[in-house]
Amino acid sequence: MNKYLRFITFLIFNFLALYVGVLLMNDGPRTDWYQSLQKAPWTPANWVFGAAWTTIMILFSFYMTQLSYKFKLYDKRLLVTYILQWILNVSWNLFFFNKHETVIGLFLIVFLWLLIGYITFKHIKQLKYYTLLIIPYLVWMTIATSLNLYIVLNN
């Protein structure tokens, strides 16, 4: 599979995760439940979430394309970590926004943050400066985890 097709494949799966996540959140940020929560003072405006996730998924697609060239595309460990990242990302929306299970959401987001950290630091030697492509994902997960933790502790 050539590099462009590989990138498009990752892009499709990454944006599919965003789409499925939006479906599973069931109007989450606009619900009375979410609006009534005490949120962290550093909670970004709603539009920031869409802009951040769009940017992150484009950069993550480039990152995964590069990573898949360092290893075989069908490398079992690479596929398992990617699929697990996908599932955790999507599941958080279901449990946090749809089911209002903020503690389960916190566990999911912490595991996702740890997994993104693992992917980042596991492959830093192989990918060198391409690691910069995944750093926004790791930073955003740090912010999102702090927002989830604040909600758990203050509601």
Mind explaining what this structure looks like?
- There is one protein chain.
- The chain is mainly α.
- The protein has a single domain (3-154), classed as TspO/MBR protein (Ferritin, Up-down Bundle).
- The protein is built from seven helices and no strands.
- Helix 1 packs antiparallel against helix 3 (46-70), helix 4 (76-98) packs antiparallel against helix 5 (102-122) and helix 5 packs antiparallel against helix 7.
- The chain is elongated.
- The model has no long low-confidence stretch (mean pLDDT 94).
Question: What's the topology here?
Answer:
Elements: H1 3-25, H2 32-36, H3 46-70, H4 76-98, H5 102-122, H6 124-127, H7 135-154
Number of strands: 0
Give helix and strand order, one letter per element, not per position: HHHHHHH
Q: Low-confidence stretches at least 5 residues in length (pLDDT < 50)?
A: none
> What is the rounded Rg?
16 Å
CATH architecture: Up-down Bundle
List keywords for this structure.
0% strand, mainly alpha
Summarize, please.
With 155 residues, the protein is mostly helical. The chain has helices at 3-25, 32-36, 46-70, 76-98, 102-122, 124-127, 135-154.
